[in-house]
Write a structure and sequence with these properties.
The chain is an alpha/beta fold. The chain contains 20 helices and twelve strands. A hairpin with a 2-residue loop joins β8 and β9. The structure holds guanosine-5'-diphosphate and magnesium ion (MG).
Length: 625
């Protein structure tokens, strides 16, 4: 049904399981898992049977989809989800979340409604509150769920239970749209025409005074103003006659009231143009995959009787995402290496392939991972890539070794035959043997010179032939004792010289390995620093967005004469500014911390890396000759 985020019909995302506890449905989770692009999440809440599902279908650009209830009982249970390609933001998926109606007496479980409301807030980037009639005190009282958010959602993990965290809500909450259905009033204030937004703002105006009654009146208004930085209102007239409305799914566009149609269109346009991609603390945009994980993290908290906490959720989410990021980056690295490397090959070429593959893999990691504080996961990736590369180097050694051995066997075949036939055990045989050995060694070198194990293999061969050489020498009557002695020494020297060549060969490999590590280290540091700069920039923009909203709110409060409220807003502004300053000044020290951490990680690998590669060939060789 779903492919790459496209769904022909909505599915249930969250519902009650057989024990009456909320759970995330696997089918929906799987769909979200497959969405690797950013998501714009629009959720709708409000009393049951107020046309929520209908308006969501319009957002999906469909006549039907979310089930409509034409009877008094509400159709939608839990939270339903429909992912469609975003109509105007390329590379984004529009995720529509339709919630079950609040206040359905049949259900008789108030807490359930509260959680559905909270989840709609927590999961969306735009929250549509849908109500019928007018925005009056009653409508606002029905929105008491907003006032309960402070008890049911925590932003920070460490703040004490009774600490007021509502100041942080604005930073993490969605933008807010109030959709007023069956609106019959004229948008006028006195004689003046007003916009629907002004209508909403005037309904949210606070009352002066501090009586309990005023407090009660102000509470939902204050919550809306303080929690939701961006507020918008649309008023819709009745869409059609009562008779027609029972079969709204079947109605053609021109059966609908033109004014309703116009409002519906401008509502959809506003959502398409203005609803932002879903972000989490720190201003990071999340993908469908992360949204699914986020839903699970919140549901898990609610199931275990805890208050969902945004900060904890981000930590859990980061863990899930980072584990995946390591897996996928490593997979990418391996695929790249296996497709590019043809063993045996020049270690320098292999190293170049490794460098490119590792750079790309780190990019894969960086785009997927987040909040990898202290670079724990990046270090894990570094270690894993390092091990894979080391394996690859070993395989390269072995492949080279095998090829050199094969060439060696071929080239020295005549000599071996001669030895076993006793061809050289005669007067003048030694010189013959020695010349043959030299000539074949040159031939062997000519054939294997590009191979890393070439000198090493030859060195081991010469060493293994030392006794045979001496035997031939002893048997050669044409040489005087002194000459023989000289030859024994020369043979020894030759073996030593060859051994030296083998060692030099291995040293070059060690040097290569060292350079690889250095490159890897530099690459990681570079990428982390870039990533941190991006993260920092995102955080700064996020803070500025909130700061702007708070300043605006403070101005409005002042204009309307609410000094005390304005002062409270000012103190929120001040503390936000302090936070922003702290973040600004902590940047350089974090950078040097990164260098330290990655540096330590690299030096941990380095000593293990060099001997292992260099020692490998020798241990194998010693078993062979
Ligand atoms: N009065 C009125 N009814 C509507 C409107 N939009 C849809 N309906 C009808 O109201 C009933 C409930 O709609 P539905 O979207 O299922 O409401 P929900 O329970 O809030 O999701 C259906 O028969 C719809 O056709 C509207 O704007 N005004
Ligand atoms: Mg519905």
């Amino acid at each position: 049904m779903a492919c790459g985020g496209f769904m022909s019909a909505p599915v249930c995302l969250i519902e009650n399981d057989e024990n009456g506890k909320l759970c995330v449905k696997k089918q929906a989770k799987d769909i979200l898992d497959g969405i690797k692009e950013p998501v714009v999440v629009v959720s709708v809440v409000g009393l049951y049977r107020t046309g929520k599902s209908y308006i969501m279908n319009r957002l999906a650009g469909q006549q039907s989809g979310f089930a409509l209830g034409s009877t008094i009982e509400s159709k939608t249970k839990g939270i339903w989800m429909w992912c469609v390609p975003h109509p105007s933001k390329k590379g984004h998926t529009l995720v529509l979340l339709d919630t079950e109606g609040l206040g359905d007496v049949e259900k008789g479980d108030e807490k359930h409604d509260t959680w559905i409301f909270c989840l709609a807030v927590l999961l969306s980037s735009t929250l549509v509150y849908n109500s019928s009639g007018v925005i009056d005190n009653m409508a606002l009282e029905k929105l008491h769920y907003v006032t309960e958010l402070t008890e049911n959602i925590r932003v920070k993990a460490e703040a004490s239970q009774d600490e007021d965290q509502s100041a942080d809500f604005m930073r993490v909450f969605p933008s807010f749209v109030w959709a007023v259905r069956d609106f019959t009033l004229e948008l006028k204030k006195g004689d003046d025409q007003i916009t629907s937004d002004e209508y909403l703002e005037s309904a949210l105006k606070l009352k002066t005074g501090s009586s309990a009654q005023t407090e009660r009146y102000n509470l939902p208004r204050r919550c809306l103003r303080h929690f939701f930085a961006v507020r918008k209102c649309f008023v819709f007239p009745r869409p059609a006659s009562t008779q027609n409305m029972r079969r709204m799914e079947e109605l053609e566009e021109n059966d609908l009231d033109p004014e309703f149609l116009e409002q519906a269109k401008s509502f959809c346009r506003y959502i398409y143009d203005n609803a932002e991609p879903k972000i989490i603390s720190g201003g990071r945009i999340i993908t469908g995959t992360a949204l699914g994980n986020l839903a699970e993290v919140y549901i898990e908290a609610i199931r275990s009787g805890k208050v969902p906490c945004l900060e904890n959720a981000v930590v859990s989410l980061a863990k899930i995402q980072n584990v995946r990021a390591v897996e996928q980056a490593l997979e990418f690295y391996m695929t790249e290496m296996l497709s590019m490397a043809q063993l045996p090959m020049d270690p320098e070429d292999l190293s170049n392939i490794h460098t490119v593959a590792e750079k790309k893999a780190t990019e894969v990691f960086i785009t997927m991972s987040f909040n990898d504080n202290d670079q724990i996961y990046q270090q894990e990736l570094m270690g894993k890539i390092h091990n894979e590369y080391q394996d690859m180097c070993q395989q390269n050694h072995e492949a080279s070794l095998m090829q050199c051995e094969e060439v060696l066997r071929e080239v020295f075949d005549t000599l071996e035959k001669g030895i076993s036939d006793g061809l050289y055990l005669k007067t003048g045989g030694y010189r013959q043997y020695r010349d043959m050995l030299r000539q074949l060694a040159e031939e062997y070198r000519a054939k294997t010179q590009s191979h890393i194990m070439c000198e090493e293999v030859l060195s081991m061969y010469l060493k293994a032939k030392e006794d045979v050489g001496n035997m031939i020498l002893q048997a050669d009557q044409s040489l005087s004792a002194a000459e023989q002695e000289k030859e024994v020494q020369r043979l020894k020297n030759e073996i030593l010289e060859q051994r030296q060549r083998g060692l030099e060969e291995q040293n070059r490999l060690q040097e290569q390995a060292f350079q690889d590590m250095q490159r890897t280290h530099d690459e990681h540091v570079n990428q982390i620093i870039h990533q941190m700069e991006r993260e920092h920039e995102r955080m700064r923009r996020d803070n500025e967005r909130v700061l702007e909203a708070k300043l605006r709110e403070k101005e409005t409060l002042l204009e309307q004469g609410f000094q005390k409220e304005a002062a409270r807003m000012q103190s929120e502004i001040d503390s936000l500014k302090t936070d922003m300053n702290k973040q600004e000044t902590s940047q350089p020290s974090t950078t040097s911390k990164v260098m330290d951490i990655v540096g330590t990680a690299a030096s941990l690998f380095l000593p293990g890396f060099v001997p292992k590669v260099a020692g490998f060939g020798l241990s194998l060789l010693s078993k062979r000759f």
